[in-house]
Amino acid sequence: MSKESNDFTIAKPWRYKRYYLFAFATLFTLILPWIKVNGNHFFLLSFDKLQLHLAFVRFDMQEFYLLPFLLMFVFLGVFGITVLGGRIFCGWLCPQTIFRVFYRDLIETKIVGLRKRIKNKQAEPDMSLRKNKIKKAIAVSIAIPLAFLAAADFLWYFVPPEDFFIYLSDIQNHWTLFGILIGVALFLLYDIIILKEDFCIYICPYSRVQSILYDEHTIMALYNPHRGGDIYNENHEKVFTKQKDLLTFEENAECTTCQSCVTVCPTHIDIRKGLQLECINCLECVDACTTVMGKLGKESLVTWSSDYEIIDQKGKTQYFRPKVIVYMVLLIGISVILGIMGSKKEHMLLNINKENRLYSTKVMPDGKVRVNNSYVFLLQNTKKETMKFYFEILTPKGMEGKITIVRPTKAFDAQPEVKKKKIVTLSTIEVLANNAINDTIIPITIHAYALDKDGKKSEKISVLRKSSFIYPKKSVLNSPK
């Protein structure tokens, strides 16, 4: 083979690059749940503890407003990738694809030898043969523990490993978790062994979504009919099956009709037919054609490019076009919003509810009427150590100092991760209103804060909550109970 022909096959096949990415993604997702910084995970959505861990920062239930922005970031990211690179997520990052390739190419082909060649994904093994049945059983037996590992890894992002194994050791009280683990593992086995690529073709909705996201500059695996010749007519009917017939019709057609790009396709399509929803951009067909045409000293007829460049031949693909820039701006904007909102994390959670009784009144020895309002404070210390908390009342202008705290009288301790219930009573002996018909609702703000080691207010650990103080009408004040 000449040096010129070698130049077209010297690059490492896309298949190996996918394998490297698959290995990295697998190790990354397996290791990530075990990594903690200050006791927090990189990502954890715990329905058990009502917590969201994001970038090693813990957010509690009252801060779940971050979750919609996180979901928007994920979906816009996938859509943006689709606009730019087609179904590259499906072929390169989708967990279903990774697990399926791992089972088909490594276990079935390399380990047990059930399939003869990785490059032929169309020929299914003859399961009528006894030796193939044994090989199939061995392949499945290898896949079962891996399916449970994958299912456990999936659940670790909802139940952290430090709790996961403790819960599993007590199945009687955590049977839901055990059932989900088995259910996910069984689905994975059914998916990769029985359903296979039909999941990508018929079940996954992403293939339908992509059709409205593509444009003429979206890069994907494309066959070049200008060089290779038209194998199919306008009705997508196959016209040529042999190169000599193709050459008779199109004198300079380069396609050898070797079918290598067809036999290697995991979703069983012919890339020469044009854009098809089933294509997952795995680029196996690009590798196949590169190998065949490289031996002839020619460039591949199937390339990773766009309709604009290959089919329409209008010029070079435009990667940074308005649609892509809009997605980039949106993603950057959401990232900034997440960063700003995440930086305002509250280190103390506080819910305030008034008691059913609006107020109580009592005549003092000097003849003044004391009005009390009681509240239920539900407080949670989100720090890792026990802290002291107290609060103050912020009233409207002109009422400063007229509403005081009579219960509790001093700061109280709050254990970490434990919800603490406190009954709080606010009181006044001042005349705050003079309404003869209705009770008066006075807006107040509760400023709750932690005390530092010196007994001073902590600037970082404090929250403000809106509430109200109900002051009775005149008839109640004139006849207090």
What would your notes on this structure say?
The chain has 481 residues and is an alpha+beta fold. The chain folds into two domains: 1-34 and 65-345, no CATH class; 348-478, Immunoglobulins (Immunoglobulin-like). 39% of the residues lie in helices and 21% in strands. It contains 16 helices and 16 strands. The protein has helices spanning 3-6, 14-31, 66-85, 88-92, 95-111, 130-155, 161-168, 175-195, 198-203, 206-213, 225-228, 243-249, 260-263, 284-295, 322-343, 474-478; strands spanning 36-37, 40-41, 43-46, 51-54, 57-60, 220-223, 302-305, 348-354, 360-363, 369-381, 387-394, 404-407, 412-414, 419-428, 440-451, 457-471. Strands 8, 9, 10, 12 and 14 form a five-stranded antiparallel sheet that branches. The protein has a four-stranded antiparallel sheet with strand order 13-11-15-16, with no helix packed on it. Strand 1 and strand 2 (40-41) form a beta hairpin. Helix 3 packs antiparallel against helix 15 (322-343). The longest helix is centred in the N-terminal third of the chain and has 26 residues, at 130-155. It starts with a helix and ends with a helix. Residues 1-6 have low confidence and may be disordered.
